[in-house]
Design goal:
Layout (H helix, E strand, L loop, with lengths): L1 H4 L12 E4 L7 E7 L2 E7 L5 H4 E6 L2 E16 L2 E16 L10 E5 L2 E6 L9 E3 L2 E3 L29 H19 L4 E9 L8 E7 L5 E7 L12 H14 L4 E9 L8 E7 L5 E7 L18 H14 L4 E10 L4 E8 L6 E6 H8 L12
Parallel strand pairs: 7-10
Antiparallel strand pairs: 1-2, 2-3, 3-8, 4-5, 4-9, 5-6, 7-8, 11-12, 12-19, 13-15, 14-15, 16-18, 17-18
Length: 379
């Protein structure tokens, strides 16, 4: 077990400058870079009214840019004039350094460029507030933004006797490692469901994969009613199954749930955070024969299984033994005539995925729960 936990410890890459592709392609480009002690986010938003078309929101320690655009085009042809309206929307979220408040963030809009500057010190944000955008001038200095999309929701609830203990612990670990990853300036993180007990520590450490910021992955808030089966955000198997199905139906390769939820009172209702893997991501799909998976508590179709951790661990072990950096299940299964197979996505070694052991104390801190009631292995 410890061999798997310790096989690939990596440091956080120093990615201070990145060009991020916008979901709307040609009309939106976003870049993030370091300017001395200031982290700067710049977005090309030509022709927009920052008061009407742009919202910049801080929710806990996550900054989200929401932009909307309407275009009208008239074309003259053989049969007269044709008028077309084009609409687009864009949402991009950035993890803020711990302690930054919205009062220290400065946003300006000039000549079609939205510029945001964010400081490195302050107090942790607990409420959702909008950032005022000034016109025609550069913002004053304050200044740094980290780099990992997230839509943080309220802290995880404490375990209750009415909830299934194993399922709750699985959900806590998935949500907690994702939050730890964002605090370390990664896009996302998830456990391999292996653990070890460090000498002298009262709490176990969990093997965790860290997904880097990359142009082939993004965060998206998806309305709960858009996810097949309408899963609860703590239902690990059904949520992961529905996230993958949603991604496939929208032309993406796959998606992982962050197990965060929120309601921004914008008409969408409850939304769940998903990390979306684009079609060009270094991830491949594979059907794994049931006989090749280690463990007895393997998934049933549609994500309905007693212990999702067993399935997740079995798929990751298979991936590791077959030369991949990591693997995670789709929580779907089928029999095409040769026996039951289980869907899995396998992460290639060139993905830039990192690995580290994360202590249970750090996970509890990320979840906002006391250590004595926190994450313990139960699988």
């Amino acid at each position: 077990m410890s061999d798997i936990i310790r096989r690939a410890v990596c440091d956080v890459p120093a990615q201070f400058r990145r060009l991020l592709q916008g979901e709307l392609g040609s009309w939106l480009h976003v870049e993030e870079y370091q300017d001395g002690d200031t982290q700067v986010i710049r977005a090309e938003l030509p022709g927009l009214d920052p008061d009407r078309d742009v919202d910049i929101v801080v929710d806990r320690n996550v900054l989200t840019i929401e932009a909307r655009r309407e275009e009208r085009a008239e074309r003259k042809g053989r049969h007269g004039y044709r008028s077309e309206f084009k609409y687009g929307s864009f949402t991009r979220s950035f993890q803020l350094p711990v302690g930054v408040t919205e009062e220290e963030i400065r946003a300006s809009y000039r000549e079609g460029i939205l510029e945001i500057r964010i400081p490195t010190s302050g107090h942790e944000q607990d409420t959702r507030r909008k950032i005022l955008v000034t016109r025609g001038e550069q913002a004053a200095r304050p200044d740094q933004t980290a780099a990992a999309p997230a839509s943080a929701a309220p802290s995880a609830p404490l375990a209750s006797e009415a909830e299934d203990k194993v399922s709750l612990l699985e959900w806590q670990l998935l949500r907690g490692t994702a939050r730890v990853a964002r605090s370390r300036r990664f896009q996302h993180g998830w456990p391999n469901f292996e653990w070890t007990q460090p000498e002298g520590s009262p709490m176990p450490a969990f093997g965790t994969f860290f997904l880097p910021i990359a142009p082939w992955v993004h965060w998206e808030d998806v309305p709960r009613h858009d996810l097949e089966g309408n899963p609860g955000h703590s239902d690990v198997g059904p949520m992961a199954w529905a996230a993958n199905r949603w991604a496939l139906s929208h032309g993406h390769k796959t998606a992982l749930p962050t197990f965060e939820e929120a309601d921004y009172n914008d008409g969408r209702g409850t939304v769940y955070g998903l990390v979306i893997f684009h079609d060009d991501s270094p991830v491949v799909f594979h059907d794994i024969d049931k006989t090749e998976l280690e463990g007895s508590d393997i998934v049933l179709p549609y994500g309905k299984c007693d212990h999702a951790a067993s399935t997740w661990r079995a798929v990751n072990l298979w991936a590791y033994r077959h030369g991949y950096f990591a693997g995670f299940p789709t929580f779907d299964a089928a029999d095409y005539g040769g026996g039951m197979v289980y869907g899995a996505h396998l992460v290639l070694t060139e993905s830039g995925l990192a690995f580290d052991n994360v202590g249970g104390g750090e996970i509890c801190q990320a979840l906002g729960i006391p250590a004595e009631s926190g994450v313990r292995p139960a699988w």
